[in-house]
Amino acid sequence: MPRSESLSESEHWSARRARDEAQLILSQIHGVVWLAVKDVDLWLETRETKEGSEPELTADDIRRAAAEVHAHFGTVHAALNTGKFDAELVRVGITGAQGEAKRKGFLPAVARLFGRGAQAIHNYAASLRPSLRWSGTLIGSISAALKKEVELIPGAASAGEAIKEFIEVMLNATEPAEVPEVPRPPQKGGAPGRGDTVR
User: Fold this and answer.
1) What's the pTM?
2) What is the rounded CA–CA span in Å between residue 130 and residue 128?
3) Structural domain count, the chain
4) Higher pLDDT pick, 62 / 152
């Protein structure tokens, strides 16, 4: 990137560091997305659909959507490679105290996901959710930086948004199914243990 005359030497290196951090984070997010899609059959709950009801989200739906989303990572990487967004990446908190806080949340979540070992399959979704949440936060920051110079790399900001929305789809799909609460019949008589007998 040609150095801007308006940036001091330390600001220039801070901005360059933000680009390097964003590239690394984007690659890690892509790894989380890839792993989640690869293992979709393990974590996506499938429920029987009743006749006339809306069809449920399937593993094939996730895989087809992922095929479109994977290309968006390349678009965002290409935009970051221009160096035109470096200062904006600093502004949106990829480096500094904000960046450190985001990384301290994201990296342990990813480490737990990839290091789950022999963890039971039913816990897979629970270990995936934190990684997806932090991925969504970080891709949101990167997308915000790309919005400043939309004409430079057409489609870069919308590619970031598409990644974020796909992460939200997977995050929603990992949530446990809501079980409707069954109303309890009213009890007759007084509370047990107060002289009343429950029959």
Assistant:
1) 0.79
2) 6
3) 1
4) 62
Regarding predicted confidence, which is higher, 133 or 191? 133
What is the span of the domain harbouring residue 158? Answer: 13-44+57-174
174-192 in b/e form (b: 16+ CB < 10 A) is: beeeeeeeeeeeeeeeeee
Domain membership of residue 164 (yes or no) is yes
- Between 153 and 73, where is the model more confident? 73
Give the DSSP H or E segment for 148: none
Instruction: Please provide residue 193's backbone torsions phi and psi, each rounded to the nearest 5 degrees.
Output: 95, 0
Q: Are 162 and 71 a contacting pair, CB within 8 Å?
A: no
Structure tokens at 107: 């990296």
Residue 194 lies in a domain: no
Predicted local distance difference test score (pLDDT) of residue 147: 86
CA–CA distance, 161 with 140 (Å, rounded to integer):
7
Q: Is 22 helix (H, G, I), strand (E, B) or coil?
A: helix
Task: Quick: pLDDT tens for 127-137.
Answer: 899 999 999 99
Distance CA 84, CA 153 (A): 10
Helices (H), the chain: 9-38, 40-43, 59-81, 86-91, 96-114, 124-146, 156-174
Entry field: residues in the chain: 199
Q: Which amino acid is at 75?
A: T
